[in-house]
Amino acid sequence: ARPSPFLEPTSRTAPNTLAIISLSKEHYQPITLQESIGAVDGYAEGVTLNTRFGSFPHSTLLDIPWGSQVRASVVDTGSRGRKRRRDQVEDEETPTSNQDDGNDTTTSAPAKKAIAASSGFIYVLRPTPELWTSSLPHRTQVVYTPDYSYVLQRIRARPGTRIIEAGAGSGSFTHASARAVYSGYPGSDSDARGKVFSFEFHKPRFEKMDAEIKQHSLQGIVQVTHRDVYDEGFLINGKSPKASAVFLDLPAPWEALHHLARRKTLRGGKLDENPCDWESPLDPNKSAYVCTFSPCIEQVTRTVTELRTLGWTDIDMVEIAHRRFNVIRDRAGVNIPSEKGFSAQPADVAEAVKKLKSDLKRTQVFHKAQTSQLVSDTSESKMDVDESTSESNIGDSNKNEDPPWLQGRLVHRTENDLKTHTSYLVFAILPREWDEAAEEAALAKWPCGG
Ligand code: SAM
């Protein structure tokens, strides 16, 4: 199998790989890059991504450094756009949470032409769990980056860790945890390799997840199982996954916790008298770290009761209230130095207009340079040239000769809406079991008790 783009990054885009297209600061769209299948009915561009920012033949997105800015096709795509809509290229129609930024079927034809003709551009980004979370097709509520980054460090996910996750849902947490536990040494003892054991009881969701994991070449590190974990627990073909970390994003996590014991236990903490050949899904040689993710405090209470009953320790609850601050220079209220010192009057309007005009000019020069290159040069070296052009132009436009006090007051604004799915995170630890044999083994390893 080829290496997963989430785990082993390459430096350039390639055919048949996932790319995350940044349409704007907040809007991302996942696509699978496709090699041009040649001219179809005179449409030489082949597979094309159509967005409200213009049309982007995949041929212009291939074999370029990840992170490149690509300008919209300069060809008038009006007629092709209509034809393509009939043909339905798959990735153009993939439903995403930012669909409103994708093909806009409600805009009038003249408006579309105007938009296509405008100087639209996109960025082609390498897939990461964070970008996948921002662009994945939502099948359920998902765990967002501020929550999963905290969860993963609290449950001690690191290269080599074996994690149990339920339910898999849309796979947001799954991708982040796969990267966290990936130890990158194929051929090593499979029990020592990091792995994510993911469980989902909703059949269509399970099937989608399973297919996605294969598409993203993560099947060596993520194993998705179709299972109701309340009833059937977490063993894989009757064998223990030997996990030391557990993440439960379930409506009733307390229903699943008794399966995560060291001895076969019934709900409420009573030991099963007839354990047969039951195995614990937990690694017997390590403490286990659990996190449950629940939106309501009543769910938290029931989870905590069950955790206490089952012997878990260090139980605590955290809520992540993530808020982003936009910090900008506000030129409108800039203090102007005068003979009498600094005045609090608004900035000189003429100066602001001058600055805007010069910014506009720089943008036009930059776009003109890029457009002429795109038209005249389709060779491999093109994007490298674009890149350097783009860098020098951007660098130039960012160059601000004014001293800081003339660049405007530093102001910050908070985002009004929280981008996280707010939930309560309950953490707990189940210590590893210790007996005389374990004590002797420990003493043999460290005879001085050190
Ligand atoms: N953590 C996921 C993510 O980041 O994309 C989202 C999980 S979603 C909120 C909860 C999932 O748990 C749903 O897909 C649901 O089908 C699944 N689920 C609910 N009860 C389950 C059970 N008893 N066994 C397995 N999965 C279950």
Per the principal axes of the C-alpha atoms, what is the gross shape?
elongated
Mean pLDDT: 79
Give the helix/strand class.
Answer: alpha/beta
Question: Separation of termini?
Answer: 44 Å
Helix fraction, binned, reads 25-40%
Task: Summarize the topology.
Blueprint lengths: L17 E5 L5 E5 L15 E4 L2 E4 L11 E3 L6 H10 L21 H9 L3 E5 L3 H7 L9 H10 L7 E5 L5 H10 L13 E6 L2 H13 L6 E5 L2 H4 L12 E4 L39 E7 L2 H13 L3 E7 L5 E6 L5 E3 L2 E3 L5 H28 L4 H18 L10 E6 L9 E7 L5 H10 L5
The structure holds S-adenosylmethionine.
Q: Would you mind describing this structure in some detail?
A:
- There is one protein chain.
- This protein is an alpha/beta fold and 450 residues long.
- The protein is 29% helix and 19% strand.
- The chain is built from 11 helices and 17 strands.
- The protein has helices at residues 78-87, 109-117, 129-135, 145-154, 172-181, 203-215, 229-232, 297-309, 349-376, 381-398, 436-445; strands spanning 18-22, 28-32, 48-51, 54-57, 69-71, 121-125, 162-166, 195-200, 222-226, 245-248, 288-294, 313-319, 325-330, 336-338, 341-343, 409-414, 424-430.
- The strands form 5 sheets. It has a 7-stranded mixed sheet with strand order 9-8-7-10-11-17-12, with helices on both faces. Strands 2-1-6-5 form a 4-stranded antiparallel sheet.
- Strand 3 (48-51) and strand 4 (54-57) form a beta hairpin.
- The two termini are 44 Å apart.
- S-adenosylmethionine (SAM) binds next to helix 5, strand 8 and helix 7.
- S-adenosylmethionine binds at residues 140-143, 166-167, 169-173, 199-202, 205, 228-230, 249-251.
